Amino acid sequence: MFQLLARTVEIDRRRHLPKRGETLPQGEPNIPGSIVYAAVIHACGQIGDSSVIKGVWDATKDIDPYVRTQGLEALKLLDPLGEQSQSKAMAREALYDPRASVVRTASALVLQYKDFEAVPILRYVADTRPDLAYPLQETLKQLT
């Protein structure tokens, strides 16, 4: 599946584009790539193919919030305990995401990992993004 992905989607280029806060608008040329990318990442998570975890980490940095969410959801399955430090780092980084739904998914992953190092980030984001204050405060209560 990842070979198909590498042949059809310019992953490296997409990773260097700024993260979008909104879903890609109709007619956006990156939409077909997002569909393939998200489907492959989702399938890898469901199959449990941890050999592609680096590719899943890359997905958490994509331009499209849907792909980023699929990356975080796949991490929940591929590295459920956060044994790989890079998985925890990706979850922490996603707490700063411009898309609120991605931040909520990341906070659930931080909680799943029992990642106490994410507490200052959770506090900061809760203080600076009023729309996320309640769910992040709930995560903090459960984590601390």
TrEMBL record:
A Pfam family recorded for this sequence: HEAT_2
Name of the molecule in the record: HEAT repeat domain-containing protein
Origin species: Dictyobacter kobayashii
